[in-house]
Amino acid sequence: MNKFGVGEFLESDPFIAQNPFTTPSAPSTPIASAVTGDSVLLTWERPETDGGSEIDGYILEKRDKEGVRWTKCNKRRLNDLRFRCTGLTEGRYYQFRVLAENAGGVGEPSEPSEYIKVCEASYPPGPPTNPKVIDYSSRTVSLTWSRPIYDGGAAISGFAIEMKEAMEDEWITCTPNTGVENTNYTVMRLRENASYNFRIRAINAAGVGEPVDLPGTVVAAEKLEAPDIELDSALRKIVSVRACSTLRLFVTIRGRPEPEVKWSKEGGAFSERAQIEVTSSYTVLLIENVNRNDSGKYVLTVENYSGSKSAFINVRVLDSPSAPTNLKVMDVKRESVSISWEAPLIDGGAKISHYIVEKREEARKAFTSVCSNCMRNSYKIDNLQEGCFYYFRVLAVNEFGTGLPALITDAVKVSEAPLPPGRITLSHITCNSASISWEKPDHDGGSKIIYYVVEMQAKGDNTWTTCSEGKAHEVTVNGLAKGKEYLFRVSAVNEKGKSEPKSLLVPITVNDTSAQPIINLLSNIFSVKAGNDLKVDVPFKGVPPPTVEWKKDGNLLKETSRVNVYTSDTSSQLTIKDATRIDAGMYEVTVANSVGTTSIEIHINVFERPGPPSELNVDEVSADFISLSWQPPHYTGGCEISNYVVEKRDTGSTIWQAVSATVARTSIKIPRLTQGTEYQFRIASENRYGKSQFAESQHIVAQYPFKPPGPPINLLVVNASKSIMVVAWCKPESDGGSPIIGYHIECKDQSSILWKKLNRNLLTENQFKVTSVEEGLIYEFRVYAENMAGVGPCSKASQPVAARDQCDPPSSLTVTNVTNSSVSLSWDKPEYDGGAKITGYVVERKQHPDSCWLKCNFTNLLDTFLEVTGLEEGEQYDFRVIAKNSAELFSAPSETTGAVTVQHDVEPPKITMEDKFRQAVVVKAGELLRIDADISGRPNPTVFWLKNGRNICTKGRVEIIATKTHTSLLIRESVRKDSGHATSDSMTICWKRPATDGGSRISGYIIEKREKQGVRWGRVNKKPVYDLRVKASCLHEGCEYEFRVIDPTFLPSPPAKPIIVDSSRCSITLSWNKPLFDGGAAVTGYKVEYRKSTEDDWAVGAHNTDKTEFAVTGLTPGAVYIFIVRSINKIGISEPSPETEPEVAMEREEEPRYEISPEMRKTLIVKDGSSFTLTVPFSGKPVPSVTWDKANVDLRVRGLVNTYNSVTSITVEGATRDDSGKYIVKLQNVVGSTSLTLNVRVLDSPGPESKKQQKHRKQKDNCVKMKCFPL
């Protein structure tokens, strides 16, 4: 338009009135992660185009699988590329999509995600650990491994084993699709002599995890192994077993192929009762109802193609001995027999204490004891009846009883060759003959005289000539030469033989002379019954007629009205009227004339009833019998006592009752008495002439000499579940004087007052399995003991125990850190809590080599980790954990950690990262940057994060997370300035092949490193490498390192110098540390050798032990020994370790000392009425004696003291204020003594006021305070 008007319009192209940009494109499909039971974390990428306008935010929508509508997950617009959607229902499936929004509006939705199940997340597990071959053959290979360290958040359901031949690439699965549950498996149907590779995968609900390869290849070849026998330490000693019990010899064997087993008995045949069981790994010899004949040396021989080996076991059956051997008669006299014997071949496992000698007359059936305590191997049996036939036997006795008898099979007649004839008298002499006479022998030897032999010898001649043989006591010898001198002698002959000859004292000259007196008495022994008359006629002759003199017991005989002597020219007669005991004795008759004197001794016995027995004693008293013994009477009545008469009476009655009238011995056991009744006994001696007066005993009450037993002790429930309970207890402290014959057990519900008996029959064992329990109820138990006297009082009731299952023990007990005074532990909760919540844990430790388990925590521990402090540096400890649930039930102990040495376990820090973090990490601006790394080291390392050489701290967008084993760096909404450079922590090591491969292909290389200032080599590569270079990572900047390359397997290095930890008279115990270098193969065992310090030859104490401690036995007491140890791996045996210091085989002596923690030295606080226990572990050699003491209190009465070899405790029930104070425990042995004071405080209400306090209170009460209030 101008001043002239409006011009023509200029028209534009048509266009729409709208924003100059469009809505953004769709974002990427959301990706779900970190799924829990009610939420899902979703992440996505930005849209490819933002529509020309910056993205303002995102909208996240979800849809249930069973629904059709999409609903928003976020109430506010999302600015981040991730979002956790919460409030989801567990177990349902959801689908998600994302929409981007800018100034132009909301864009298209992304592709929906896969349906996601809302549940606790799980992932495939990690690889198993520690795979190894435990056995192989031409067709099989047996593998074992450990469970993976990481289970992916779900339980491991099985393991899959894969194999391939070494020259092939394809892996073949050996197990079913579901895998195997155990951590061992035997692969079957392999090709003989083929080489195989194996790998193992773990399986859980999320799938199959990563594999772990078995190192090296395995050749399927038959394993040859020489047979070997492993005898338990108990079998190396003499195995003792009681008679009538069962002998079980269990011996471990091994060998390839399976060896042939043979049992034998040295010097004898096997018992028909022997049962032999043989497997590939052990053999058992079982003999039931053993007896003394089963004693001996048993030899076990195993043999296969590789050789043979034998071992022997000495068995001793504790029984009464066998019969004595070589029993024989040594000598027979007229009143005695001497016998001898040798010791039994089998002593029954105990020393023969004595022998019992018994005799039996031929006419009797029962043996009677002659000597019940013979200490020698011979015995003379006196006081036998002359002329009788006897049998004899001998029995050996040891501590287990009387053995079998040895018997003389043929009867022995008690007789001997007769004595020489009596005095020989010359009766008459002529010019060619001589008449001689003689008296009978003083004793015929117990057998009748058959005849007499008369012999003569002319003077100057050396030979005797038999003149006569006959029964007469007189003979006339004719044909003698006049004037010549002759000697005569006479011998008596019976069935036992010929007596010694009786010679005429002087030679006879054949001429007519006067003769000295001669007494012709046939017998010089006369017997008479008391009250009867006796005549003794003594004929004699002599020229000129002799005179006669009588003597009694060496004195001239005094004639009385009863005793008279009548003498003639040819005889002298002694007459005794009404003979009495005083008439018995030895009489001597002397006949004399001018030629000579002759005398003879005459023995007169007066037979009558004996005197009463002497020394009547009561040997044993019981409720139904009484044992009596006595001595024979001082006067036997002139003949042997035939028997004794025993009578009894009740003291309430005057009537005597016969017990026995035929007692042969001087003792008797009187049965069938009434318990509690008072008795009196009397005994009389009896011979063939009558019965003596009675000897009476004092009054005796028939009752047991013992009482019912005391209550059983230490009653506790050793095992409890919802269906059974096992109750155990100890014997009473007092058995009442009689052995315990059994027990009775009762139980009741804790809420009940009625006790119920559980056993029908008497219990002989010290434990009982209760099956009649109801789940959830709480039970108490009590036990009674019974002996011959009856049932004793009941024990204290056991602690209440609920009928619930025991919870599982904690698992995965590991040592997380070790210092010079502490050990840090961690563990996992039990898989099964027994139906009640886990409420705490008890950690226990045991010091090596020999100690008991002690508590480490004295308060309830809720955490699954604990640092155990107060340990001794350099000592070795075992640890275990016990779980406790809310039902007050304890689990079984967990697996132990193994020996842990308390010392600074220094290990340089190590960082393990994924390969993607070792390269440049690219992240978009605004996204989350996360770097993860695993760390290790001892002590626990301190974590620092650096960027470009400067420390990074948690601040704003930066967060550092660090645990003992892991660290993470998180940077949210990263920007450009977060870029940076990290210093390298790796090196590449190269080497050349060895000059020679030793005749076998190189199977790989192992690279080891150590810091220049260090001594321990560490592995760089876990698996052998086949290239000539390797990358060593996780190095420390600025540190200098040494590297070495070795073949995978060599001989191991020797262990460190062994140390002596204990000794006795016949053994020395030593321990050692593992070698620093295992040669590339696991150390399978150790060989222990020793020698005396004065010798050069080494003896083997152990060929292959897998422990690092061993006790060498069978040493000479007092000798000095030196020891070395060698390591063993599959390649062979290492060089010897340094020698130990010389050690003497002798019992060690150590002063007593206490092993308690500082916690126990604090004052123990106890509430009134509760119980408390003070437990004190100790040590010392020899084991010290223990005494507990408290001022003015006898703790043996107030408390229950239990003491074992290394721990003592005292338990006080129902504590009161009087139990407060100091408890002193004292230890003492031959080396020294020590004491420890423990303080106890009992919390109770205050005691009564003192007099001073009462007076003060009364004075205060007299003052009345008043306060007035206004109205």
UniProtKB/TrEMBL annotation:
**Key word Repeat present:** yes
Q: Which GO terms describe its molecular function?
A: structural constituent of muscle
Could you tell me which SUPFAM superfamilies the record lists for this protein?
Answer: Fibronectin type III, Immunoglobulin
Q: Which PROSITE patterns does the annotation name?
A: FN3, IG_LIKE
Per the UniProt entry, what is one GO biological process? sarcomere organization
Question: What GO cellular component entries does it have?
Answer: M band
Q: Where do the Fibronectin type-III domain residues begin and end?
A: 26-121, 127-223, 323-417, 420-513, 612-705, 711-806, 809-905, 1054-1147
Q: Which CDD domains match?
A: FN3 (cd00063), Ig_Titin_like (cd05748)
Q: Which UniProt keywords apply?
A: Immunoglobulin domain, Repeat
UniProt superkingdom: Eukaryota
- Quote the InterPro entries the UniProt record gives: FN3_dom, FN3_sf, Ig-like_dom, Ig-like_dom_sf, Ig-like_fold, Ig_I-set, Ig_sub, Ig_sub2
For the keyword Protein biosynthesis, the answer is no
UniProt cross-references to Pfam families, sorted A to Z: fn3, I-set
Q: Where is the Ig-like domain?
A: 215-316, 517-605, 909-980, 1152-1237
Q: What is this protein called?
A: Titin
Species of origin reads Labrus bergylta (ballan wrasse)
